[in-house]
Amino acid sequence: MPLIDNNVKLDFKDVLIRPKRSTLKSRADVDLTRQFIFRNSKKTYQGIPIVASNMDTVGTFEMAIQLSKLQLFTTIHKHYTVEQWKEFAAEHKDILPNVAISSGMTENDLKKLRDVINAIPELEYICVDVANGYSEHFVEFVRYDLREPIRDFQVIPPGILSLQNLFYFCIHQKNDFIRFVLENSCKTLQQQCPLVKSAIEITRILCKLFYIGVEPNRHQIHKDYFLLFYTISSFFEQAFVRCLLLFNKTWKEMRACDVDFQV
């Protein structure tokens, strides 16, 4: 049954940029360059945060060449071939930090994407060209390490894995999830059990406990855990949910607040 939200919504027409006082003497003193440090990868991007769309008439190699001179970013459209990407990268290596490769989500799209980023490892950004970013297929698509898929459980946890665990909690144990959210929404920000923060830390602990990313024959204790993944459906996700609920219960009993959460 669809959920209808009757609350007031804002559109782009409702946005007003409010001016504030400035210490600059002239418009020539304005510096639009910004530095962004990405939360999970910790990589740094520096430039003017204006991005050319990945439309086939906008996100072209020619556009990227011109915009990069102004420190602007271009998402290249997905219709270029692997050979065209190789030619562009060979002639314009200095531009690669200011472009992203676009891809659809079909098997052919994924194969071409892997071929391009394996041939041009300097490419750091990927734009997934889809109509609906809320679909489960999209979530599954973006969770993989495209350069070396076997490294998923070595590199990604607890980032995307913790997000996947939260999706499992929300979808498969909806009542517990709603109760968790409602209980904490009635508290002050300092007293709320931090859902995202605790999800990341619990996932990190479970990965360490179950030796995620370690070959089974390296640890005898891991052999015992190894069987659980094949005998119990969604074992890791169920363990995560149980730990998160116990953590929330302990949080309430201790009357904890945000300063008590030390990681």
Radius of gyration: 23 Å
User: What structural category do the secondary elements indicate?
Assistant: alpha/beta
Morphology: globular
Number of discrete helical segments: 10
Oligomer: single chain
- CATH class (first level) name of the largest domain: Alpha Beta
Number of DSSP E strands: 6
Strand order of the largest sheet: 3-4-5-6
Instruction: Give the helix level as a range of percent.
Output: 40-55%
Integer tally of domains: 2
CATH superfamily membership of the largest domain: Aldolase class I
Q: Low-confidence parts, pLDDT < 50 over ≥5 residues?
A: 149-157
How many strands, what sense, and barrel or not for the largest sheet? 4 strands, parallel
Please tell me the CATH architecture of the largest domain by its name. Alpha-Beta Barrel
What integer is the average pLDDT?
81
Order of helices and strands: EEEHEHEHEHHHHHHH
CATH fold call of the largest domain: TIM Barrel
Structural description of this entry:
By secondary structure, the chain is an alpha/beta fold. It has 2 domains: 111 residues, Aldolase class I (TIM Barrel), CATH 3.20.20; 102 residues, no CATH class. It contains 10 helices and 6 strands; from the N terminus they run βββαβαβαβααααααα. The chain has a 4-stranded parallel beta sheet, covered by helices on one side. β4, α2 and β5 form a beta-alpha-beta unit. The longest helix is centred in the C-terminal third of the chain and has 19 residues. The two termini are 40 Å apart. About 3% of the residues have low confidence.
